[in-house]
Amino acid sequence: MRWFRFADRVPGKSRVQVAWWAFAEGLMRVPCVVLYGLRIRGKEHVPREGSVLFISNHQSFLDPLCNGAATADRQYTIIAKRGLFRGPFGWIIKSLGAKPISDRGGDGEALKISIEELQAGRCVCMYPEGSRSPDGTVQPFRRGLLLLIRKAKPKIVPMGIAGSFSVWPRTRRLPRFLGRLRVTVGAPIDGSVIAAMPPDEAIALLEEAVREQYASALAWRGAPELLP
Description:
This protein has nine helices and nine strands. The protein has a single domain, classed as Glycerol-3-phosphate (1)-acyltransferase, CATH 3.40.1130.10. Helix 4 links the parallel strand 4 and strand 5 (about 100). It is globular. The model has no long low-confidence stretch (mean pLDDT about 85). The chain has helices at about 5-10, 15-35, 65-70, 85-95, 105-120, 145-150, 165, 190-195, 200-220, and strands at about 40, 50-55, 75, 80, 100, 125, 155-160, 180-185, 190. By secondary structure, it is of the alpha/beta class.
């Protein structure tokens, strides 16, 4: 069974680390399915081996759970601010392979860690908008994404999330307890092709790929995003 081919799933990680990620991901998926009817399309597009850069729109704190459910067969590295690595929550995300970055290190430190992970044949998930959307729509992408692609040339898999803004927009302290979450996963894009393109064309292509996935997820959800 593929589940036990740990070397393919996450090169360089122990069986215990991969099994713990799989268990935690499955456990955290339960409330998303029960409360918000989480559904996913396109899992077959997730490459079974090799480095992968997942890029997605970013609506709320629920997004990493949605992305993790969609890419469950390929554990990705979590990069977070050092301040989150405190107490029980900090222990949990650290045990799941999260990498801390300092407030001063910022994008440069995150870029360095991402390149190392991809060059090791592992996966990284990024939100190229840079922060959670203020209105649920896909915001313009930051260009730092291209530096990572040019260095590592990974396979790039676009994803779209619809509904997490309605459940937990950035203006709410706590999430709503009802909603409808949908995630779509697009076909992989060759990182070497993106790296060779003019910057404006490359970023436009990647942004459009995520916008298409978001539009597909939103249409599948069958309802407009709720206002905060």
